[in-house]
Every structure is written in C-alpha cells, then in structure tokens.
Design goal:
The chain is mainly beta. Helices cover 6% and strands 39% of the residues. It has a six-stranded antiparallel beta barrel. The protein has a five-stranded antiparallel β-sheet with strand order 2-1-21-9-8. It has a three-stranded antiparallel β-sheet with strand order 5-10-20. The longest helix has 11 residues, at 39-49.
Length: 357
C-alpha cells in the first residue's frame, strides 16, 4: 500500500511516550504508548550538542597545531533533564478530566473527546497549559532518572538484503517515575487525585532541590543575580536595567554580573524590585513579558531586543526594569489522548523515546 506524505514525515520525525501504571506492589496494571512528533526537539538538541567547544588550528603552536576554542558553548541547558506534568483541575483543585476545553474538544463526527492541537507560537508564555504547582515533596520537579539507548535497523546501500542492514543505537529513552506519594491531588481529602493531561520534555538550569516554591516551571527556571551580599544566599533578584521605550535596554552601572545575559538568550522583563520567591512576577501589563536578545557584547551593558519594550496599549515602558534570564527549554509538549488518574494507589513510569532518523 502506498504511504501518504504524512506517514513518511511522521515516521522520519517520530517519538513516543510510554506510560506504565503499576500498583503499590509493583504489578503492572496497564501500559499505554502515544506517538509524538519531536523533530524540533531533535534539531535543537543536536544543533547545540554536536558542536565541540574546541577546533584544531594547524597553524598554532609554532605550526605544529593545537586545539583552540571554537566559540561554541555546548551548554548543559540544551540537554533534556526534566519531564514536566500538567493536569486538568478548576480553581478549587477539583479534577475535570475530559470536561476541560483547555485540553479537549468534542469530535463532530465521532462525538468523542479528542486532544486539542497545540499551535506554534508564544501561547501559555512558553509554559504548559495548566502546570501543577511544584512543591516538594508532594509535587516535585521530576528529573530524568534514567537514560538508555535502543537500537533500530537502518538499511544501508541496497535495502532488503540481510547483509546490508545494520543495527544503530539511534533511539534515546528518557525515564522518570512518579511514585505513589507524588502527584496525588491537592491533599484536601483522602480520595484526592490529579488527572494528568499534559507532559513535556524539557531542559534548563540544574536544581538539586526546589523546596516549597509552589511555583510553575516558567517561574522556577528563571535566573537572576544573587540577592544578598552573603555568597551562601540562595535567593535571586532581577538584574536592574534601564528602559527607554525602544528595543535597547541598558544594564545598570552598579550591576557587576553584566554577562548573566548573552546574545541569543530569552529574558523576562518585570519590575526592578522583583525577586524569585515563588510568587508571580509583575509583567508590567505587557502582552508578553518575554523578549529575545538579538545583540549583546561580552562585558557590554547595552542589550538589543527583538522588539520595543511597551505595555499592552503600546505605550513605552521607561525607567528602571528588572530582567531575568529564561533557562526553560521545552523540547516537546503533548496533550494526552486520555487523562491519567494519578492517586496514592498507583506508581507511574514515564518513558520518552526519541527516534533520531
């Protein structure tokens, strides 16, 4: 049977999410696999990870050659380290399951619920649709707990000939386990549960512990400068900059960490007094408070952005503002075909497979 173009594209860019539901004794109750297209993830990760930090200069070392900086920083931020979870619940914490039009709509033909289509762009400020507030130990940041590789068989040269087919370890598997005491609702009753409706594979800054931040991934992964003079202080504040209504902001002369922001970074602009304490940051009535750094010299104080800094009415924002560097990298984001009810009765294994064709 002739394959459609969509079949070909999906095969070449396919990933897969597997959910293994186990009871308290470790018995597997059910398995579910859902396909997921992750080509953008593959491109972004490989683009930032394949380039080595050094290149060979044959003219260095008096003509004998030497390794020198390539100008590429293979930063760990572009490696997948986290699996983020969102759920369907109302303002009172009551699970909604399919009855939430943020996640599901009714198919006009089958009259059944289907996941919404996630559109490209800046929806949800780059976060999940409805992330579960992160709060250790009940709803912790789920780190990748295991990475392995699986093989697939790639035709080489003449296909269909056994001697001409070779196995290649081109499937990366990222796994985490949501344990029986995690993600079981907001804890108001013994029968509390979350209906997990979305999952994302993400990178970002490294956390050993997030404590009781009660924040979303979008807030958690912001990075500022040390708030106190004590080097042991863990609190961070905004980098103070001056805005004049244009697309260039200037780092305050009293700031010493001028290279917190680099060209190519995404930043969040908020009030100059903002600190990262788990509370929502003031977005100064902007349509979107996130900007892309177009140009920034190492050691320089002028930062050129992708657009002018204005509020929702188009009026210029002038004066001191606060800037945080955004380290969250969501490589792939999916709404589940069917919500998963997570309670203290089950353990959930999440395996994210990426097929690098």
């Amino acid at each position: 049977m002739k394959k459609s173009l969509m079949d070909i594209l999906t095969k070449s860019a396919k990933g897969e999410i597997e959910f293994i539901i186990r009871d308290k004794n470790g018995n597997v109750l059910s398995r579910r696999r859902e396909p997921n297209i992750v080509k953008i993830f593959a491109k972004e990760m490989l683009a930032h990870r394949l380039g080595y930090s050094q290149i060979w200069n044959p003219n260095a070392n008096s003509g004998e050659g030497a390794w020198e900086s390539s100008g590429i920083d293979p930063t760990e931020e572009f490696a997948a380290k986290y699996i983020l979870l969102g759920a369907s619940f109302d303002e009172n914490g009551v699970p909604l399951e399919f009855n939430d039009d943020r996640f599901y709509s009714v198919d006009s033909v089958t009259n059944s619920f289907i996941p919404i289509s996630l559109t490209p762009g800046a929806e949800y400020d780059g976060d999940l649709i409805n992330p579960i507030p992160l709060l250790e130990p009940d709803t912790p940041l789920k780190r990748i707990e295991d990475i392995s590789f699986e093989s697939s068989y790639q035709p080489s040269g003449t296909p269909l000939l056994q001697d001409d087919v070779r196995a290649m370890n081109n499937v990366a598997v990222y796994e985490t386990v949501v344990r029986t005491d995690e993600y079981n609702g907001f804890g108001t009753t013994d029968s509390d549960y979350f209906t997990l409706t979305e999952v994302a594979l993400a990178g970002g800054r490294i956390f050993d512990s997030i404590g009781a931040c009660n924040c979303t991934p979008r807030t958690l992964f912001l990075e500022g400068v040390a708030a106190g003079t004590d080097s042991s202080s863990n609190s961070e504040r905004a980098l103070i900059c001056s805005a004049s209504g244009g697309d260039v902001i200037s780092i305050d002369g009293a700031e010493t960490d001028v290279d917190l922001i680099s060209e190519g970074d995404q930043i969040k602009i908020t009030t100059s007094s903002s600190v990262l304490d788990g509370t929502d940051l003031d977005n100064l009535d902007q349509v979107s408070s996130y900007y892309l750094v177009i140009s920034k010299q190492v050691g320089g104080r002028d930062v050129q952005l992708d657009r002018a800094v204005v509020d929702a009415n188009g009026d210029a924002i002038v004066g001191d503002v606060g800037v945080f560097r955004d380290t969250l990298r969501i490589f792939s984001h999916r709404v589940l075909q069917t919500p998963i009810r997570k309670s203290s009765d089950i353990e959930l294994v999440i395996r994210w497979r990426i097929i690098f064709n």
